[in-house]
């Protein structure tokens, strides 16, 4: 076992040695990180991606509802054409222009 130095210089040298040991171990750990990350990335890239599952559309799942929707749309188009007749807005404007006595 090493002799423990006495006095303020001994404590400072012990603290310096301890810090030096910690810094070198930290440096070694930091140097080990890049190879570990490259190994992890290589394994993740090697994993095969599962093929994409085709997703069915709403029309493919419910074709009977699409026929009903077409009929409903046709009915709405007929109603819209019937309401396309221009209407006068006189009663509405008369309310604004009405003179009060």
Supply database-style keywords.
elongated, 4 helices, single chain, mainly alpha, 101 residues
What does this structure look like?
It is a single chain. This protein has 101 residues and is an all-alpha fold. It has a domain at 9-46. It is 70% helix and 0% strand. It contains four helices and no strands. The longest helix is centred in the first third of the chain and has 39 residues, at 8-46. The protein is elongated, with a radius of gyration of 42 Å. The termini are far apart.
Short description:
The protein has four helices and no strands. The chain is mostly helical and 101 residues long.
Question: How do the helices and strands line up, and which of them pair or pack?
Answer:
Blueprint: H1 8-46, H2 58-61, H3 63-82, H4 90-97
Low-confidence parts: none
Q: Structural class of the secondary structure composition?
A: mainly alpha
Assess the beta-strand content as a share of residues: under 5%
Shape descriptor reads: elongated
- The run of helices and strands is HHHH
Rg: 42 Å
Estimate the mean pLDDT confidence. Answer: 79
* Share of helical residues: over 70%
Q: Specify the biggest β-sheet.
A: none
């Amino acid at each position: 076992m090493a002799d423990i130095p006495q006095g303020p210089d001994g404590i400072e040298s012990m603290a310096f040695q301890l810090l030096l040991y910690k810094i070198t171990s930290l440096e070694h750990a930091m140097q080990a990180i890049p190879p570990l990350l490259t190994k992890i990335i290589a394994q993740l890239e090697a994993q095969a991606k599962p093929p994409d599952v085709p997703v069915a559309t709403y029309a493919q799942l419910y074709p009977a509802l699409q026929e009903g929707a077409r009929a409903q749309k046709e009915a709405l188009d007929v109603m819209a054409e019937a309401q396309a007749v221009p209407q006068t807005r006189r009663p509405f404007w008369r309310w604004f222009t009405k003179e009060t006595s």
